[in-house]
Amino acid sequence: MTGEKAVSFSEDVRSAFRRGETDAVVRMSEAEIERAQAAGDPAGEVEARYSLARVAIRGGDLADGETRAREALEVALRSGDRRLEERPRHVLAAVARMSGDLARARDLYRESIALNETLGRPQTVNSEYHNLAFCELGLGNLDAARTLFAESRERVFRNDWADFVPYVCVAGAALASAEGDHSRAARMIGVTDAAFAAIGQVPDPDDAADLATMRAAAIQALGPAAFDEGYAEGQRLDPRTAFGYDSR
After folding, report:
1. How far is CA 97 from the centre of its chain?
2. CB neighbours of 59 closer than 8 A, spacing ≥ 6?
3. What is the signed CA dihedral for 83, 85, 90, 92, rounded to 10 degrees?
């Protein structure tokens, strides 16, 4: 019964977070920590502390996000179940990335990739490669980032990982922005927003921060009217069409 409750909480709290229902996530997580501690359920406690870490990061409090992620990791390590380490380690890497410590973030993402390969989680491995690519992009390694983004996009479209399609679009916008092609960036931001809306989700905090930076840069480079035109064009495009992806 405890396992069933943990699974149900995980699904419910992650869905609420993706819908942007921050207050609900906090209420659910605090209640779950109490329940999980009383029941001796480390999986539930880790998920709840991880969720609070994500809320803190979304609110811009990276220090609190790191603290809560470390608390979740401590519970995971005490449990001896390596599967429970995955989410806290992901958050710690994201905090390093968002704090600007890209070299450390790159190392943490590589460690996360190795863990998820051991756990046999191909979708999570792909997700962490996506994040690794952003580190390379931030470090100025455009060729490495371009290759990692392309490989991730191919896996997503080939396997029909619908939940990850918007993040492929985030990557497309980021690469366009880094290359100075702000018209393409505006279009890809439109594609991205439409892709998130199509699955009823909002971006993760680190991706939301990246999108805001790209949007500001594109508006400054193009002017508001030209940005809006490119953005509107992107909103009408299917992601596969936007990338010229051929699934045959």
Report:
1. 12
2. 22
3. 180
Q: What is the DSSP string of 108-150?
A: HHHHHHHHHHHHT-HHHHHHHHHHHHHHHHHTT-HHHHHHHHH
CA-wise closest residue to 119 among 87, 72, 152? 87
Which residue in the block uniquely carries the two structure tokens 């995955």?
86
The type of residue at 83 is R
Contact by Cβ (8 Å): 9, 44: yes
**Rounded CA gap, 48 and 35, in Å?**
10
Is the pTM higher than 0.85?
Answer: no
User: Could you report the per-residue pLDDT of 188-213, keeping only the tens digit for each?
Assistant: 999 999 999 999 988 887 788 889 99
Task: Locate 44 and state its tokens.
Answer: 């539930």
